[in-house]
Amino acid sequence: MLRTDPAVSSHSTKSGHRKIRKLRMVRLTVSLPGDLVDRLRNAVYWSPSLKLAWLIAQSLRTSLTEMESLRQGPFPQRKNALRAGRPRLVGQAMNVFSHDRVTDIGGSAFN
């Protein structure tokens, strides 16, 4: 599988030579469901050229692109740092939808 390392970007200089620079990488600690982590690890194990961090970053890029598409544009830059700890539902909606469709007993899908 051919892929570009997301941590590296290249730029052409005036002389036409390519200059490669590393993008800033940030460590982020999150808690994820165990079954999801197990599936991620299985995918990486059975895909020798795949790296866990790359798979997670690519999945987040895809999800963010979809969210931005639904809202017809990127999210504005935040005005303040995020609060540490669990989010409080004051002044913001937690409307994150799953790709799974919920069906009733009759088999029709809700949107």
How do the strands line up in the largest sheet?
1-2
Distance between the termini: 36 Å
Helical content class = 25-40%
Total helices: the number is 2
Low-confidence stretches: 1-5, 101-105, 107-111
Listing every helix as H and every strand as E from the N terminus to the C terminus, the arrangement reads EEHH
Q: Can you give the mean pLDDT?
A: 78
Radius of gyration: 19 Å
What topology does this entry show?
Layout: E1 8-12, E2 18-22, H1 34-45, H2 52-70
Task: Describe this protein's structure.
By secondary structure, the chain is α+β, with helices and mostly antiparallel strands. The chain has a domain at 8-70. Helix content is 28%, strand content 9%. The chain has a two-stranded antiparallel ribbon with strand order 1-2. A hairpin with a 5-residue loop joins β1 and β2. It starts with 7 loop residues before the first strand and ends in a 41-residue tail after the last helix. The model is unreliable at 1-5, 101-105 and 107-111 (pLDDT under 50).
Which terms would index this structure?
single chain; 111 residues; alpha+beta; two-stranded antiparallel ribbon; extended; disordered C terminus
Concise summary:
By secondary structure, the chain is an alpha+beta fold.
